[in-house]
Design a protein that fits this description.
Layout: E1 2-6, H1 12-27, E2 31-33, H2 49-65, E3 68-73, H3 80-91, E4 96-100, E5 104-105, H4 107-111, E6 115-117, E7 138-139
Parallel strand pairs: 1-2, 1-3, 3-4, 4-6, 5-7
Amino acid sequence: MKIYLAGPFFNEEEIKNIEKAEKILFSRGFDVFSPRLNEVRNEENTQDKLWSKETFMNDKRFIDWADVVVMLYYGGYSDSGTAWECGYAYGTNTPVVVVHLGKDSNLMVHEGCHSNITLDELESYDFTMLPPKPYMGKMF
């Protein structure tokens, strides 16, 4: 199974969580694309339109490739890239499994996803059957 791992990696907590998700998914034998592991940005090219286009097209190509998108989501915290990845996957009928790491959810995220799980549940979630699990927490 091919999995695209969406989620921010801008600070230590986010990096720790995405690394844990990568480790879980790789150890379960999935073919995983993680933008964090395929970063093309560096200090010299962030003002270059080619870097921007390459990053965007790479993410789009690998969401199109994926069977499932796993999204790390921090609730009210806004990350436009991760939100776009979730919306694009939904729009192309790619199931989105949201790993909730916050205390609340935006209705557009939990209504647009297939299932809502915790990081611990990622270790045993059945990606073959993709059982739906609705979001039960606070939403805005």
